[in-house]
UniProtKB/TrEMBL annotation:
It is found in: Cytoplasm. One of the proteins required for the normal export of preproteins out of the cell cytoplasm. It is a molecular chaperone that binds to a subset of precursor proteins, maintaining them in a translocation-competent state. It also specifically binds to its receptor SecA. This is Protein-export protein SecB. Its main location: cytoplasm. Belongs to the SecB family. The lineage of its organism: Bacteria, Pseudomonadati, Pseudomonadota, Gammaproteobacteria, Lysobacterales. GO terms for biological process: protein folding; protein tetramerization; protein transport. GO terms for cellular component: cytoplasm. It comes from Stenotrophomonas daejeonensis. Keywords: Chaperone, Cytoplasm, Protein transport, Translocation, Transport.
Length: 172
């Protein structure tokens, strides 16, 4: 590739024709690992129970920039004792230029968490292993499916709100 082509790729997205989606920055926003019952927990001979909680937060930073935070909390219990709790908030700043609001919503709900997921997966795995426990590999997550479910829930809430608004006051 010639030097001229490399420079063309560095042109800011706002000067390019058409819509643009860019990854500006990826970083760890918060990380925590606790093993409150170690070293005793290492001698427990029970099947561990894992609970995974996933959340996503979006914050608009400017007209064309958003911070997306993918949060994962993994709790492992051995019997009635907590073996460990690993929490990671992996964040990214994404540029979305020249897109319709619906397209922005889709990208923030699907593509951004898909981009962040490998980072959060690696960090969780490293934390668990560094804590002295067997490796844990976070299974792939279907963010498209989660987004579709979110849309379905939004639609149900909107329909419920419009039904409540249309009912006569005395029948509520």
């Amino acid at each position: 590739m010639s030097e001229e082509n490399n420079n063309a790729a560095a042109v800011p997205a706002e000067t390019a024709n058409g819509p643009a989606f860019t990854v500006e920055k990826i970083y760890v926003k918060d990380v925590s690992f606790e093993s409150p019952n170690s070293p005793v927990i290492f001698n427990e001979n029970v099947q561990p129970e894992l609970q995974l909680n996933l959340n996503q937060k979006v914050q608009r930073l400017s007209e064309n920039a958003f911070e997306v935070v993918l949060g994962v909390t993994l709790t492992c219990k051995a019997g009635d004792k907590t073996a460990y709790v690993a929490e990671v908030e992996q964040a990214g700043v994404f540029g979305l230029i020249g897109l319709e609001p619906q397209a922005i919503d889709v990208l923030l709900g699907t593509q951004c968490p898909n981009i962040l997921f490998p980072y959060v997966r690696s960090t969780i795995s490293e934390l668990v292993q560094a804590g002295g426990f067997p490796p844990f590999y976070l299974q792939p997550i279907n963010f498209d499916g989660l987004y579709a479910e979110t849309l379905r829930q939004r639609q149900q809430q909107a329909e419920g709100a419009s039904l409540a608004d249309s009912e006569p006051a005395g029948n509520a």
